[in-house]
Amino acid sequence: MLHEIEEETDVNQDWQNPEHAILEAAKEFKLSKEAKNANRWWADECERAIQEKNEARRKCLMRKTRTNLDIYHQNKTKANRICRRKKKKWIERKIKELNETIKKRDTRKFYKDVRNLFNLRTVTTLVFKDKDGNILSEQKQILER
């Protein structure tokens, strides 16, 4: 009986170590992901405008009056205008930086920045074949149905 209780606590301790490591790795990954996207065009001004638009939309959905609808359309136009302007300025700044990089003849940095700018990633598709060489994938199953 005593041996079973000791064994159970050891199992719990053994589980806590990998669980803790997994949680820490997930936190680090999330922080690195947020830091990568921190320099994008999205700003607090855009966030506030979108929140105002969403609040006006909620009011419009609850009570669809002409004034609520007009307020929603005004907030929507304002939010789109702000976000479009911020994104345009960000793109212009990035283009200027890329032009300066090209003038310095730093092609490696240029291509790295272009790849980061457009988030170009290589996508690998997993394709499985059976013993006869037939492709086993969901796409093929969808086409055959």
Please render the helix and strand layout as text:
Elements: H1 2-36, H2 44-62, H3 66-103, H4 107-117, E1 128-129, E2 135-136, H5 138-144
Antiparallel strand pairs: 1-2
Helix pairs in contact: 2-3, 3-4
Question: How is this structure best described in words?
Answer:
With about 140 residues, the chain is mainly α. The protein has a two-stranded antiparallel ribbon. Helix 2 packs antiparallel against helix 3. Strand 1 and strand 2 form a beta hairpin. About 75% of the residues lie in helices and about 5% in strands. It has five helices and two strands. It starts with a helix and ends with a helix.
Quick summary of this structure?
The chain is an all-alpha fold and 145 residues long. Helix content is 76%, strand content 3%. It has helices spanning 2-36, 44-62, 66-103, 107-117, 138-144; strands at residues 128-129, 135-136.
Name the features.
single chain; 145 residues; mainly alpha; two-stranded antiparallel sheet; 5 helices; 2 strands; 76% helix; disordered C terminus
- Give the terminus-to-terminus CA distance: 58 Å
Gross morphology? extended
The biggest beta sheet, please?
2 strands, antiparallel
Task: Indicate the low-confidence ranges by residue numbers.
Answer: 35-39, 139-145
Order of helices and strands: HHHHEEH
Mean pLDDT: 77
